[in-house]
Design brief:
The protein has eight helices and two strands, in the order H-H-E-E-H-H-H-H-H-H. The chain is mainly α and 192 residues long. Helix 3 (56-84) crosses helix 5 and helix 3 packs across helix 8.
Length: 192
């Protein structure tokens, strides 16, 4: 016997997923707003190696925690479609197919996979330590795919030293911060 998500006590729909489930007309504006937030987070960019330090992953995981699996995937996908169309939505105001296939391609692909995976976890828990753990695993996935791509361009050791290691402290901080933001917003929304 299959239990519908609305009746499954293990599934706690994040606030944006609940909004879209109740009022389907909100799906497109919510997805576009999420893509816009990702574009804005991309503009906070500090060049530190082959890939810049940005707020993209903080935005990805905060959105995943607030919107769940499907919506977060759609947000990241819309952001990438805008990038492929040439809009300046990536780090440094980059856009276009060449920007998507450059040195940061593995990291970008990682975000597309990490968003729904962490969004699924957010549908199943409201505890911030579990959210932080899921977001940290999401960061590890992003870093692993980024490393794999960079390794084809610069070699395994150099890719790790320049494209992974400098990002580990930020991944820890952004995972914790995203979990705290999601937890605070969800508590505030559920108190209403």
């Amino acid at each position: 016997m299959t239990v519908a998500p609305d009746q499954d006590p293990l599934v706690h729909r994040p606030p944006l997923a609940r909004l879209v489930a109740r009022h389907a007309v909100w799906r497109v504006p919510v997805v576009l707003a999420g893509a816009g937030i990702l574009a804005l987070a991309s503009q906070v960019s500090i060049p530190i190696g082959p890939a810049p330090l940005t707020l993209q992953t903080l935005a990805v995981f905060t959105l995943a925690g607030l919107s769940g699996m499907r919506l977060s995937f759609q947000m990241v996908l819309a952001w990438l479609v805008f990038a492929a169309a040439g809009l300046p939505v990536l780090a440094g105001g980059e856009g276009g197919p060449e920007a998507l296939m450059g040195q940061t391609a593995g990291f970008i692909l990682g975000m597309l996979f990490a968003a729904p995976l962490t969004g699924r976890t957010a549908e199943r828990t409201q505890e911030w330590p579990r959210l932080a753990g899921a977001f940290l695993l999401g960061h590890l996935l992003i870093l692993a795919l980024g490393w794999a791509w960079l390794a084809t361009l610069a070699g395994v050791g150099r890719a790790f030293m320049q494209g992974v290691l400098p990002f580990v402290p930020g991944a820890l901080v952004k995972s914790l911060l995203a979990a705290l933001i999601v937890h605070a917003v969800r508590r505030r929304v559920s108190a209403r």
